[in-house]
């Protein structure tokens, strides 16, 4: 029996090309330009699947979707829209749509979505709209790269699957984690974030799992950990690649068994949290270097989500700049705008600091410049300092920055991640550890694991090198020629 697809769009050209593609794929098609006709077909039992635009001349598909799901809950609905925003994707998911397809779209991709929807078991697509359908826009951008992110997030909102977000510094990993929480099934619970790179190594387990009174020197009272604070909600583990091995082992046990033991405790505590992890490092490389547990990686990487750097979504710069200008105006700063030449200058820049760097630039324009209109010259003057320091302008022949510049850039991003606050004490030791590991690992690799030669190369005592190898958890493999 040939399956029937109902298509609704007020654009005759779109109705035609979609209908033709579906008929070539072997489906029967009925097409209309209004919601009323579509609803009449659905209510009379016609159609095995619906494809509809959101904005129709006689109504909004989002208003009709609840009626469709109540009348025929097993009827898959695919929503099309030219309003390619995060909230469009989320609304489509919340209202019960099977999928959201942003315009313009690939016809083969649309046919593929239709086939998947029709092949899935019936009765598994029920969703419940949230209590708050506010129009706040947590994520900004309409580029193809961001459309993929929106669709992936929409599919994950009604699940508790563990998510690992990867991306360069400044791409918005915590913003995505908050969106997963605020628009997901755990939105009424707490959102608790912890930055693994900002906590002293010997305090991470206490921070995560809490401790009992007297568990260690200075533990004068019981303290709850982040798992307990996030109960019923979401725990965001930022910079998960910086978690020490011993803490990774305990985290793995929690993910496997659903319970944890406070430091100094004797009774395990059952936990109910959703884990969202994030990192700007390649965890597979860390696994190869013996710095990250492979079994923990697969526990965390149930749903991998890669955030694109700003240079891969240059077309989003006008929307992002407008968003940051509006935010600055709400904070009392003067309203500004960008000339077309200024936008062109921004598009030529490679944005090593990503969206965070763009936000800081917009704030500087609002706070420091008297002009109402920001010109290309002003943009180039501001960005040239960063470009000279970090190689930000893409002229095809930039030189690699030296170690001192790389460390300065890292520290700048690190301090800015705390906003108006300062990092926790012990920064000197943490930074030295970050630098020592690759230095010693490189020396051992160059000497094929010969610790005597490596110690001589580094100019340190052999016993000192052995101690550092133990303290830094460096794997030493001797090569045999």
UniProtKB/TrEMBL annotation:
Pfam families documented for this protein: AAA_lid_14, HTH_8, Response_reg, Sigma54_activat
Chain intervals for the UniProt region annotation (Disordered): 119-140
The keyword Nucleotide-binding is annotated on this UniProt entry: yes
GO biological process: regulation of DNA-templated transcription; regulation of nitrogen utilization
Principal subcellular localization: cytoplasm
Positions of the Sigma-54 factor interaction domain: 139-367
Compartments, as annotated in UniProt: Cytoplasm
InterPro entries: AAA+_ATPase, AAA_lid_NorR, CheY-like_superfamily, Homeodomain-like_sf, HTH_Fis, P-loop_NTPase, Sig_transdc_resp-reg_receiver, Sigma_54_int
GO CC entries: cytoplasm
Every Response regulatory domain range: 4-118
Primary role: Member of the two-component regulatory system NtrB/NtrC, which controls expression of the nitrogen-regulated (ntr) genes in response to nitrogen limitation. Phosphorylated NtrC binds directly to DNA and stimulates the formation of open promoter-sigma54-RNA polymerase complexes.
Classification via NCBIfam families: ntrC (TIGR01818)
Protein name: DNA-binding transcriptional regulator NtrC
